[in-house]
Each structure stands twice: as C-alpha cells, then as structure tokens.
Protein 1
Amino acid sequence: MGTTTATASLRQTPAWQALEENAEALRETHLRDLFAADPERGERFSIEAEGLFLDYSKNRITEDTIRLLLQLAEERGVAERRDAMFAGEKINVTERRAVLHVALRAPKGEHIEVDGEDVVPEVHEVLDRMSEFAERIRSGAWQGHTGKRIRNVVNIGIGGSDLGPVMAYEALRYYSQRDLTFRFVSNVDGTDLAEATRDLDPEETLFIVASKTFTTLETLTNARSAREWLLATLDDEAAVAKHFVAVSTNEAEVSKFGIDTANMFGFWDWVGGRYSMDSAIGLSTMIAIGPDNFRRLLAGFHTLDEHFRTAPFERNLPVLMGLLTVWYADFFAAQTVAVLPYDQYLKRFPAYLQQLTMESNGKSVTLEGAHVDYETGPIFWGEPGTNGQHSFYQLIHQGTKLVPADFIGFSHTLNPIGDHHDLLMANVFAQTEALAFGKTPEEVRAEGTEEWLVPHRVFEGNRPSNTILADRLDPETLGKLVALYEHSVFVQGVIWNVNSFDQWGVELGKVLAKRIAGELEADSEPELTHDSSTNALLRRYRNTRRTS
Ligand code: G6Q
C-alpha cells in the first residue's frame, strides 16, 4: 500500500515546495508574455496520443512547472500505485477491494488476477451473454409476454448505475438502433418513472434493473413500481420474466425481487459504481449500439489504459491532465474545473464527470486517516458549447474566480449540415484564445470605445484552458475520453493520497433517509429525536401532507 514517500506530508515534499515557488513567480505572469517569449509554445505544450490531441499550452505553466509536477508524480509514487491497480492489488483500502475497471476492457487472453484468479475469462463470459441477449432484443427474437417484440428499454438505476448508461446512450445515439426507444429512470421522485413510462406500451417494454448491491432504495422502489405498472396491464406474474432483467453482483437479492437469475448479468466487487459503464451496467448501451460497437467502445478504453500504463509521464495524457488539475486546485486556489464539450451528443458528459471526479476525490482524509492540509478534488461542472457561452461563460471571462476549463472538440461532425460544424469549432478556438489573451484597455480604446465604458469591456485574459481534439465522436473515442478522465482522477488521488475508490458520503445518505422515511410513514405521531430544525420540518411535512 503506497510508497514510503506517499505517506510523507505532501506539503513537505521537495517538489511541492519548489512548485509553491514556481507558482509564486508565475502569479503575475500573463499568458500573453509566455506566448510572446516562446513562438513555439503552442507546439511545445501539445501532445498527440492514441488519436487524442491535447493542447495544454494555454495554461499558466512553464517548462519548470511541468518538470516539477512530473517530479511530484514521481515522489508520490504514481507509477507504483498505477502498477498496483493494474496488478489487482486491493488499493481501495477502506473497502478492502481491488480496483479493476481496466479488466473490464482487457482483451481475451490477457491475465489480470484478483486473489490469485484470472478475472479476464469471466469478463468475456458476461460480455458474450450480454451480446447474445442484446442481439435477441435488437432483432426482435426476444418476445414480451404477449408475443410482441420489445420496442422500449428502460434502465432503472442511480448514480454509477445510471449516469454512465445515460451518458453513453446520449453520446453514441448516432450509432443506436433507431426503432428502439431508451429511457433512464433514476430519481425516487415518482415523476421520473411516470414520465418515462407514460407513453410506453407495457407489452413492448423491457426493464433493466441495474444495481450493484440490489439494495438501493431508489432503484428498488422504482423497480417495484415498474413491476406494478407492467402487471396492471399484463396481469400475470409470469410476465415479469419476459420484461425484467437485472444487472447486479447480488444474486440472492435479484431472485428475492422475482427476477429469474437466468436473466441476470453479473459483475464483481472490484468494479466501482462510477467505473462500471463498461461492465454489464452497460447493457442498455450495448442494446442501443449493438455488441460490435460496444466492443469498439471497450477497445477505446483499453487503448487509453495501455497508454496510461506504458507512456512516459511527460507524454502521458492522463498524467499531464491530472497534474494540471492539482496545479490549479492547490497552487492557484481554483475551486472548480469547467468541462465544455463542443458536441451536442456529449450533453451528459459533464454530469457523468461530476460523479467520476467528485465522488472519487471529494475526500479530506489521507489513506492513513489523517486530515489533509491542502485542497483536494475540485468541483467539476459544465454544459455543451456553445450553449454555455450564452450563459455562464461571462463569469469565466470577467469574474473574480479562476476557472480552468477543458474544451473538447472534433474534426468531423456526425451530422454535417451546412457550415454548422465550422461555426461550432470556430467558437472553441475563439473562446480559448479570448480566455488566454483577453483584451487590453488599449485594444478596447482603439475600437473607439468611450472612456467610461473601457473598464467594462476589458478582458484581463490569463484564464487557463486545455483543448482536447479528436477526429470524430465514435465508440472508440468515447472510450478513450472516459478512460482519460478516469486515469486523470487516479493520478490526482495518488498525489493527494486519498482513496479515490470509496464513497462513504453516499453510504451516509442511504442510511439517513431510511430512518426518516420510517418517521414520515408512521401512522401515529413518532417521537422525533433530531435537532429542532429537522424535527420541525418533519412535523410540518407530516401535517401539511395530511391537510392538503
Ligand atoms: C458509485 C457509487 C454510487 C452507486 C449508486 C448505486 O461509485 O457507489 O453512485 O453507483 O449508489 O448503487 P447500486 O448500483 O448498488 O444500486
């Protein structure tokens, strides 16, 4: 577990101290000056690997910064911990689990062991079963209880069992079978299920209940109500077998719910919820895009895994991106990172990344349980461009907060219509340029602006961004992009010496709500022993619910 250096206080490491000095020296340096001093800067701070091009030159860094960040990665043992993850060591120490999402996309024939057992054959066994099932749905061979073919697929899951599937479905919609309808139900708010099913024919609807534990309140509540909805029309318990399948690690709970375990697709405790979109949790994705495209998605993930595992750190995309995130969070007090995909299909990508990054690195104790004395995971947020430009970009350009941003764009669009794509991409380049270089008072005056208006129209610039370009949004590319962020998160977690793979904050919510739900549902006034605010809120809710 860890290297000796990783347990030393982060702030005391030589690289950290040198980085503090480097940041101090750069505090007043403008990107304008950095670019003016080095005509090659754009090329110097760009790399291309595995079909992804990363331009990180518009960051507030020098070659010294990168050298020191790489030194920090070395001092913190990033390579050793990466190798421990790939080797199946139980690096998720608080849950005593291996962390092996990389095994989900390992090609047949590779060996990855957990507790002395090669897990790759099992992974492919499940993939083969999923493929067979997906083909039966896609071809119409799988019939519902009344003999009709399935036309609607509803994934019921939450968190990691929802965000990956919904993001991947939206991202790869272009490749989806268009005579199938996909819906995703996550919220325990009955509105979610009601709106998702209101126009569907139960005879043509398949529910995928996706839950690693199969004990999650939201998912089981939705699944039970979905079963009632189905049986209200089909009126025969036997229909459940034709209209419900499960994705889970918990066979006992699946069968207790009434789903035939022959229709269950399994995965393993070494797959974290937010790292599970390429396990059986991706069944809805596979039905949508087909098994071949799903395997292309996995191949993309694997390509980036291999890159992360083998590329030298100075040319390693997730290492560089992870280090830059640490750089702004810890040395420039940046509280957030904006993710701005210029592709409508990636509209749920920021939401997906929010869970991946914030649930992973939103931690404040080290692996050894000590409180950190430095900043850890920043807030991730974003919207697809160009929509964000017409709302919150104002703050990024002229506000008082530093918001490092990742711009993501593609050379080719999947929907060539007129000059839309050039216009879209023109905005990517224009935005990153404006953020970096801004507009000086002299430039504003030269435009003929009246003096009193000048301060309002000045753009300080010096706002950092990364630009990630790829050829087109296909299944491989999506796999590479997700793996890029997964491994970037890993690198950050190692630097900060936190466990990126547990989520005790999520577990807390699961327990608390159960207790209060009992108090809300009790027939007679329960004795409330919360604080005075919570007690009063509960009483008020109980009373108003009764009277209205
Ligand atoms: C992910 C988290 C969390 C989890 C959900 C759903 O890393 O653990 O988001 O995915 O709470 O859990 P189940 O899949 O067990 O229903």
Protein 2
Amino acid sequence: MKVAKFGGSSVANAEQLIKVGNIIKSDPKRKFIVVSAPGKRFAGDAKMTDMLIQLGEAFHNDDDYELYLSAVMARFSEIIEGLRVNDDIYAEIETGIKMALAAKGSMESKMDAIKATGEDSSAKILSAYLNSVGLSAYYINPQEAGIIVSDEPGNARILPESFDKIYSLHNEEGILVIPGFFGYTKDGKLATFSRGGSDITGSIIAAGVKAEMYENFTDVDSVYTVNPNIVSHPKEITTLTYKEMRELSYAGFSVFHDEALIPAFREKIPVCIKNTNNPDAPGTLIVAEKETSEKCVVGIASDTGFCSLYVSKFLMNREVGFGRKLLNIFEDEGISFEHAPSGIDDMSVIFRDKKFTPEKEKVVVDRIKEELKVDTVSIHRDLAVIMVVGEGLVNTIGVAQKATTAFSNANVNIEMINQGSSEVSMMFGIQAADLNDAIQSLYTSFFS
Ligand code: ASP
C-alpha cells in the first residue's frame, strides 16, 4: 500500500481537491492520505496556516479577531460549497476552531492548537468528499493514529514509540485521511512540527505502516537540478538518494521538508515527489541507493540568510579546547551552527542570521573577546551558501576545479569552501548579492 500526502496547493480549493479525489481513486493502493491546510490559490494569496496565526494572535492579544475568523471560515465555506459536500461540516469546522481558540496552556501551545485546525479541517473535508464520490474514507485524528511527539510546541519531534502504534493502522478498512503537521505529547497536548511539517507526518505514517511507497504530491513535476527561479527551465532530477535530497533540501530546495526524510529513510521506503496538476508525470524518486550514473553532481542548492563569525588567534591550533569553548558560547546563547570551517590560527562559525539579533551579537562577541582572548573577531552578514550535491563526488576527480572555475567565470569571490566529511556535498559561502550569477554559471558548467 502507499501513503499519499497532498500539500497546501493541492488542497487550496475545491477544484484542486477534485483532482486529489481522482488521484486517490485511480490507484487502490493509495490507502493512507495525509493533507496540509489549504495553501495559496494564486500568487500573493494567503496560506490558511498564516491566516490562522493572525487569527490566534488577534484573539490572544484581545484585538478584534472576528474579521480574521470570518476570513478563515469564508475559505472553508468556499471549498465546502465547491465540493457540494454536506454542509454540517461547516459547523463542525467552526466549532473546532472556536475550541482551539479557547485552548489552555502556554502561548505557544495555544497557537499550535489554532494552527493545527488548518490541517484538521482539510482532512475532514477531504474525507467527506471522498465518501461523496463513492469511496469509503475515514478521518482519523493524529492522536488516534498514534503520532506521539515531544513537548516542543511549534517544533515537535516524533517519539520512537509512535511507530508500533501506527503499524496497527495497516489492517484498517477503507481509506484513512490523516491531518498532517501535528501530533500529541504523551500527556495528550497537541503540538505541531515546524512549518511545512505535513511532509513529516506523511513520512511517519509511511514508515509506521511500512508502506511500499510514500508519494508526496505538490505543484511541480519533479525536483529540479537548481532553483527554477534563478535558472529558467532547469533539468529535472529523475532519481536521487536520501542523502542527496537531505543536502539539497537543507539549502533552499523547499519541495520536501528536510526532517521528513528521516522516518522514510530508516525504513527504506522510496519517496516519490509528484504533481497533483500532472499526476501522470513520473516525478522524482528518492531512494536509498541508485546506480552510479555518469553525472556525479545531481543538483545545486542555495540559500541566503547566513551569517559567519570569524575568530583568529595566533597558535590556536595548540590551544586544547578552543573550538569547544567557542561553540559553547553559541550553545549558551541558543544558536545552532551550520558549518565550522577552520584553519591553523582561525575558525569560522556559520549560522542562520534570523535569530542573531544585534543584542545577541554583542553578547557573543563580548564573551568571545573576554573568555577566549582572541586576536580578532568579526561578523559577516548577508552571506549565501551554495551546495553542490551528489553521491558521485566522492570518487570523481576535478569537481572542485570545475566549480571554482564557474565562480571565477561569473566573477564571484568565494569566501569559504567546505567539503563535508560525508563527501556528498561541497559547500561554498559567497556574498548574497552574487548568488544568481554564481548559480547560473555553476548550472552551465555542470548541466548544460
Ligand atoms: N500548513 C503548515 C504550514 O504551512 C504545514 C504544511 O503545510 O506542511 O507550514
């Protein structure tokens, strides 16, 4: 049997949900269905999850929230009417949202309860619709399904005991429709995964029921070798490994949540990225191992919003514990690091600059000066990271040379190079302003 997950654009309106119904009908193996909340219907439209966040914030700040509630209900009403399902479901959804608004707990937990109603309502609507077109479908709540998560609102992680419970679902009759994006803690508190986390639910269910395939339906025909917003009509990737996908989704390949690979990977379940708007296209298959092809680089990922902190100290290489003490300061300040390239007398720590406020920067820099007695410390913001990814990198000669030539052809200065120990990727740090030129040149070198 297969697990099929439908993302926000696939459930954005009635027309899309009708396509979803046809996809489910066309393959009786599609027994477990996971859904996102309604996404954007057109460029510039609001995602349901963002609308619910606005609603929750207005409600809990004692602002006038009625307007936001009506906007949310209007979107659901449009979908319900378009599908011509029994409109009792409208009242059920409204009650669910009102109950979530009244939820108790910390602010983060209360917001999680509200955010989760997007996926929850989507699952209820889809299950009603599938029944109306003659399929036996059942809505099932993540708690009943056995999705037990850590108590980290907005960033929950699956707990290992979930999988046995989920396995018992494989005997259930009919099609089970499960809302994505959230689970319940051991003591019954709702908690959501990080944003985009319905992919994670799909993968958990696929691993739990030991599905033969996890299909992830989105709005593109495949995963592309490079960001299509930078290079127009880039080549498609037909097959890639979990490791390659992990490296690509880390830096900007947003088709699939990076945390979602883990459960499928552990059970070696192939993941297929497919297009709801073109379900006959073969899509991109993510597998444990693939045949070595002549292409050693499968894709080039890139992302902006990085920051680097550089420290130098003469004879740093002889100072036992220097790296640990530096990283300890990051740990104390709650900043996770992404890369840490080092030289004999210097070291850089690369991290996302989202949470590195000017106040945090001052604390970190002062502590480094004070506790590590460094010669220099400097911060570089507005960095972009480019990852050249492929399992073939490990035994191909000349990839770095090809990449650096591409940077020099584009007249782009490389600020940092790091070849991960896994040798699945090569990382380059450059100024964010140079990103498009660099990517275009790399694409020409590796794929044209
Ligand atoms: N609706 C959630 C979000 O927008 C989760 C998801 O769509 O996967 O982040």
